[in-house]
Amino acid sequence: MAEHVSSCRTDTNGRSHAHPFSAAQALTLGLALLLVASCAVPQPPPGGPRDVAPPLIINVNPEPGEVNVERESITMEFDKYIDRSSFEQALSFTPRFQESPTISWSGRSVEVTFPEELRDDMTYIVTLDTDLRDERGNNLRNPVNIAFSTGPEINEGEIDGLVVNAGDGSPREGIDVFAYAHPDSASPAELDSLPEEPDYRTQTGSEGAFSFEYLEEQPYYVIAVQDDNRNLRPDPGEEFAVPPESLIVADRDGTTLDVPWVVTRLDTIPPELMRVDARSEQRHELRFDQPITVADRTPERWAVRDSLQDERREINAVYHPPGARNTLVVRTEPLDATTHELTVPDSTIADTTGNLMADTTASFTPSEDPDTMRTRFRAFLPEHTEGGEDGVHTLLTQETPAVRLNQPFTGYSGLPERDSTHLHDVITARDSVGDPRSFELTSEDGATYHLRFTPSLASEEEVDIRVSGAALQDPDTTFARTYQRISDRELGALGGAALWPDDDLPDTDVLAAPDEQNNPTSGRADRPPVVVEAYAVDNGDRPMEPLRTVANPEGQFLIDQLPERTFRFRAFGDYSGDGQWDGGQIVPYRPAEPITWGDETPEVRPRWETMLEAPLRLPEIER
To answer: Based on C-alpha coordinates, what's the Rg of the chain?
Structure first.
């Protein structure tokens, strides 16, 4: 007869019951007793709070700051197990070795053997940057620097700084910072290139701060670079930040600058045409390597030539498909499926920062498929407006109504989309009493048509926009939407002062006139104009573009016609005079334009002018 031990189960009333099973399937008696006990007494789940602490170095040899070091390796012990691949990525030496060191692990300890003999009387810095993480994925929050010297003295120069984002002044975490020794008197503004690699490298921590320690005491040119390819050089397209001072002296008392490094991107690479995709015998898609803008979509400026017959073919339209800013469609007469050449006009296509693409010619073979796409209505814009109970959609002051089609309208009989008279038969507008409302149609992408009313829509004015489906292969449908300009009673204004370091608070109540907005021409005679920008904080599902104005000579500004939202402010000294903040240049050195961000986030109150309590104070930057 087989022996049995009992397991337990609990019914829905909480009562325990015995359940026999074979001894051949049983565990040890001790385990069975433990099982019974666990049935009778509920136990908390295993484990504890999730480990989110960064790894710590609890022992290192040689010790930080040690002198007269004669070693072939450095050893470190951590308080937890480290992701070993991240250690290799995070580790760097100053000065650099020509070869890679040998890394040997033993549990939580690692020994790094130097690939070459250490130099005499040299301060070495071993850096672990924030790429280092433990096996649970917790990264270092700040870089760790361990320094020792092979001579009787160790370098004691220090430079501390802060790197921030240009948009809102928030700390920039994890960006590399390079320091180039600059012992002579030549200014970085005279440089035509950087050295092959920096003399020192560190990284910003979680609060955007960086610290160079154990530097040789001399001047340095210090830049921040988002060194994505880890080649220790600023490359085109990488984000960077130039210093507020061209040369910064490292000394043992520590040099800390009050003005931050502000991250920017200098994009000098023009867009490139990657390929031409044939969609039909008439539609041909041009694919670019980045979003583009098109200065001139006039078909006559563009050229498609049949290579076999050496004849130019007619182009009907050039446009962006809705939502595809890196794609351009060239629509032609029906083409034979033979080799053709498409020529993009010079100085017509640019990227979003204005880099122009050179005159480009590409070969392609059209599709044999006939073009079956018909022009259709897509949407009314802005898309994020919501109709009220009466179905009326509110327009903010900065918004214009628009009609989006899937492609340019070519008219009833193949007329080109630039025939605006024909398009006015399709898109109509009437006021609240049914009278026609005068407007012009403009399009940035070739398929979305904005209605510019003459005169502009007044406060609370309604307009009914209709799109005839008969002209869009949809004869039984008329698309309609009613818009109403937001009431002036729902709008307010925000104002304040934007001042230079030596400016006193203004005594007058004179504010920048509203018609000076977006026109950076005001300012003191001895200073550039100060551009002030307001950004909606709660942009949510109805985004707003930044609003700009220019402070008057006393430093005061006012931005009106604002909806009831919360805003934050940014101000900069517009030395370039283009109304856009300039982040400077690395080589030759050109400082960034002085910039500041407001700490306040005031809320617009309808029919009120709300003033910032503190001025936006610009920093002083060497120029």
So the answer is: 34
- Is 50 exceeded by the pLDDT of residue 144? yes
The two structure tokens encoding residue 489: 């009673």
Cα torsion through 248, 252, 256, 261, rounded to 10: 40
CB distance 19 to 5 below 8 Å: no
Q: How far apart are CA 309 and CA 335, in angstroms?
A: 12
**Under DSSP, is residue 88 helix (H, G, I), strand (E, B) or coil?**
helix
| Closest C-alpha to 400, from 509, 519, 485, 521 | 485
Tokens describing residue 542: 């109805």
The pLDDT of 578-585, averaged and rounded, is 94
Locus of tokens 């073919």: 313
Give the strand pairing for 360-364 and 392-395: unpaired
In 3D space, the residue among 414, 412, 398 whose CA is nearest the CA of residue 450 turns out to be: 398
* Spatial CA neighbour of 576 closest among 618, 514, 531, 518: 531
Question: Predicted confidence band at 509 (pLDDT cuts at 50, 70, 90)?
Answer: low
Contact between residue 168 and residue 597 where contact means Cβ atoms under 8 Å apart: yes
Map tokens 């005499």 to a residue.
Answer: 120
Show the CA angle centred on residue 319, arms to residues 314 and 321, nearest 5°. 130
pLDDT for position 5: 32
Report the distance separating Cα 404 and Cα 417, nearest Å: 13
**Helices (H), strands (E): how many in the chain?**
3, 44
Token look-up 């290192």 returns 60
Buried b (16+ CB within 10 A) or exposed e, 12-34: eeeeeeeeeeeeeeeeeeeebee
**31-70 pLDDT tens trace:** 333 333 334 444 444 556 888 999 999 999 999 999 999 9
Rounded distance between C-alpha atoms, residue 346 and residue 123, angstroms? 55
Check pLDDT > 60 for residue 217: yes
Enter the DSSP assignment of 226: -
| Adjacent-strand bridge partners of 294 | 349
The 3-class SS string of 309-352 reads: CCEEECEEEEECCCCCCCEEEEEECCCCCCCEEEEECCCCEEEC
pTM: 0.80
Half-sphere exposure of 180 (CA within 13 A, CB side): 26
Which of 187-191, 353-357, 397-401, 492-496 has the least mean pLDDT?
Answer: 187-191
Which SS3 state, helix, strand or coil, does residue 369 take? coil
pLDDT digit string (tens) for 81-139? 999 999 999 999 999 999 999 999 999 999 999 999 999 999 999 999 999 999 999 99
The Cα 165–Cα 204 span in angstroms is 12
Q: Which residues pair with 379 in a beta bridge?
A: 404
Confidence category of residue 359, pLDDT binned at 50, 70, 90: confident
The more confidently predicted of residues 519 and 113 is: 113
- Dihedrals phi, psi of 422, to nearest 5 degrees: -65, -40
| Distance, CA of 210 to CA of 95 (rounded, Å) | 19
CA separation for the pair 518, 521 (Å, rounded): 9
| CB-CB neighbours of 519 under 10 Å | 13
pLDDT of the residue at 374: 87
The answer to whether the Cα torsion of 293, 298, 301, 307 is positive or negative is positive
- pLDDT, tens digit, for every residue of 162-214? 999 999 999 999 999 999 998 776 788 888 899 999 999 999 998 999 999 99
Beta-ladder partners of 283: 331
Q: How many C-beta atoms surround the C-beta of residue 375 within 10 A?
A: 19
